[in-house]
Amino acid sequence: MKKVLLASACLFALAAPASAADLAARPYTKAPVAVASVYNWTGFYLGIVGGGAWQDASDIKMKGGFVGGTAGYNWQTGNVVFGIEADGAWADVSDSITGATVVPGFGVATATLNSKIDAMGTVRGRIGWAVNNVLLYGTGGYAWVDNKITVSALGLSASESKFHSGWTVGAGVEAFFAPQWSVKGEYLYRSLGGEDYFSGALATNTLEMHTVQVGVNYHFGAPVVAKY
For residue 8, what is the DSSP state? Predict the structure, then answer.
């Protein structure tokens, strides 16, 4: 046992100076400097958008969903970001009312009126304040919908589509979650002018719509700059 302990002590004594020499010879290396990413919002982008819409009205109250595409361009100066954006979507936003009506030659009959928006879109300006990868913004501009009204009574029906145009205003928040990808949430109020249907036999009031939508955008170019 004494011989084993003596041999171990000798090996340790020989290894210790070699390890110390290795440590002394190893050069000092500084820790890497952290890199901060600065997001540049300037540039062209494309994306997809979808959400829900509903109407405030006393009689017919359309509601439903939509999905479509977005295209836009941003300019950034300092923390201020401004730009233009257009979107278009397929929609299924509708409502029906049923009531009694007088049909000439037939007397009183039950009739159903259905109003359905099957397409909608906007062309808007945007202006906001960017804090690195997060943008808070207001938006407003032109809005449109394609609306179809169908009237059914006595087993017969008639339909007509009209293009309603007006204005929109709203606000949103957008944030980069990857170097060239961002996600946004947005609320828009849309006021769309009334139209005459069936040669003036039926007139609609102003369509006042609320929409809440989310989208994902791909930004072309290099929106991320490394700052040391």
Answer: H
Q: Report the alpha-carbon distance of residue 228 to residue 217 in Å, rounded.
A: 27
Place of tokens 């999905």: 67
- Residue identified by tokens 């609306």 is 147
Best CA proximity match to 120, nearest among 60, 172, 190, 175: 190
Ordered structural domains, the chain, with CATH: 40-227 (2.40.160.20)
Neighbours of 156 (CB within 10 A): 8
Sign of CA dihedral 52, 212, 180, 177: negative
Terminal-residue alpha carbon distance, the chain: 61
Q: Which amino acid is at 117?
A: I
Rg of the chain taking only CA atoms, in angstroms: 33
Helix, strand, coil content of the chain in percent (nearest 5): 10, 70, 20
**The pTM is what?**
0.77
Torsion-angle region of residue 221: left (phi > 0), alpha (psi -120 to 50) or beta?
Answer: left
- pLDDT tens, the chain, 228 aa long: 444 433 444 333 444 444 444 444 455 555 554 444 578 899 999 999 999 999 987 678 899 999 999 999 999 999 999 999 999 999 999 998 887 665 555 556 688 889 999 999 999 999 999 999 999 999 999 999 999 999 887 778 888 999 999 999 999 999 999 989 999 999 999 999 988 898 877 888 888 999 999 999 999 976 665 454
